Amino acid sequence: MAVISGDTPSKDSWYIDCATASHICGDRQKFVRYKQYAKREAREIRDFAGRVAGKAIGYGDVRLRLRLPGGHRNEVIVRNFLHVDGAHNSLSQSRLMDQGLWTVPVNGYGIKKYDKSPAEDSARGRGSFVGIAHQIGGLFQLDVKVAGNRYRARE
Fold first, then answer.
1. Would the pTM of this model clear 0.90, i.e. be above it?
2. Is residue 110 part of a domain?
3. CB of 15 within 8 A of CB of 141?
4. What is the number of structural domains in the chain?
5. Residues 1, 20 contacting (CB under 8 angstroms)
6. Are 16 and 93 in contact (CB under 8 A)?
7. Is residue 112 part of a domain?
């Protein structure tokens, strides 16, 4: 994940990451379903240079409650997150696309995510609006109200 400005990404925020093939969560408390790897099963996570960037110690599903324009919310369960203790929370752009989510760039501020199911917007070839990610310091940060089992409000 690259940061263009000097801003430091928050460990509690959620980012869409184009540079990873796995969804990653750094906080065990955010999982709604979880299975810990046996010590011998822990998976090494490598960066582009092939260096070990961390170890996945478990995996599972995470609930995200996304804020939408107009005060609406959308709750989604994202499956198959790797738990890398202390890592930043990121969703793999390629895995989201594999699961049928479209990304639509919005000039000047970020991206919108759509599913591929038929909806009111079907005349334009998109499905239902799922969520939005604002561009902050070169990253796409999801607009999350609460996440996982700890229902913390984001102001």
1. no
2. yes
3. yes
4. 1
5. yes
6. yes
7. yes
Which of 50, 54, 4 minimizes the C-alpha distance to 26?
54
User: What CATH number does the domain containing 54 carry?
Assistant: 2.40.70
Torsion of CA 113, 25, 86, 105, to 10 degrees: -10
Owning domain of residue 137: 14-147
Tokens for 66?
A: 């996304």
**Amino acid letter for position 81:** F
Per-residue pLDDT of the chain (155 residues; tens, 9 = 90+): 343 344 566 778 899 988 788 999 999 999 999 999 998 888 888 876 778 888 999 999 999 888 888 888 888 889 999 999 988 899 998 898 888 888 888 876 788 888 765 444 555 555 788 888 888 877 888 888 655 544 333 32
Measured CA angle at 31 (ends 29, 154), to 5 deg: 65
End-to-end CA, the chain: 25
**What tokens were used for 86?**
């202390």
Q: Dihedral (C-alpha) 92, 98, 100, 104: value to the nearest 10 degrees?
A: 50
User: Residue with structure tokens 């109200």?
Assistant: 145
* Tokens standing for residue 4: 């263009």
Query: Most distant CA pair in the chain: distance in Å?
Result: 51
